[in-house]
Amino acid sequence: MILRPRRSRTAGFLGVSVAIVAYGVWHAWHGMSGPTWAGWGLAAFGSLGVVLCVALLLPNGWYLRVEPRGFTHCHFFLAHLYRWTELQRVTVGVVGSSKSVIVEFASPGGGTRKRAFSADMYGVAVQELIDLLNRYRERYLNGRVV
User: Fold this and answer.
1) Residue 25, phi-psi category: left (phi > 0), alpha (psi -120 to 50), beta (remainder)
2) Do the beta carbons of residue 130 and residue 64 sit within 8 Å?
């Protein structure tokens, strides 16, 4: 199973980012009431949003894939496999002001390490993503095929 970012929301953010870039360039070239560096700064800021949105929209740029060995999280084309055998528990946590899925892993040194995932990014509820990961973990660890 592969979860990808919501395309409609990402396309909306891309449109806003392109508008910010266009306004910044227009402001810099026409030198409205402020300094031109402010327009170029705004264009640079909007460009970061364009790059992020393009990465989110490309097929292998950003995803969460559940597979027999574990689950793979890919962001900006960098994929990392988290093995089911390393996973200790999946819970709800708060990161900033929003609820996230917190995954705890056994650390080689004996402690635990945590990783937060935004369920909203993939268009699912936090509890739904927790249930999905726990269900697949149980199936794969018990040798059953999904």
Assistant:
1) alpha
2) no
Residue 69 lies in a domain: no
pLDDT of residue 146: 43
> Considering its fold, how many domains does the chain have in total?
2
40 - beta bridge partners? none
Q: What is the reported pTM?
A: 0.72
80-124: pLDDT as tens digits: 999 998 888 898 988 888 889 999 988 777 778 888 988 888 888
Judge whether 29 and 39 are in contact, CB under 8 Å: yes
Closest CA to 36 of 45, 23, 27, 44: 27
| 88, 94, 98, 104: CA torsion to nearest 10 | -20
Report which residue type is found at 97: S
Q: Is residue 71 part of a domain?
A: no
Residue 70 lies in a domain: no
Instruction: Give the Cα separation of 95 and 115 in Å (integer).
Output: 11
What is the number of H-type helices and E-type strands within the chain? 3, 7
Amino acid identity at 139: R
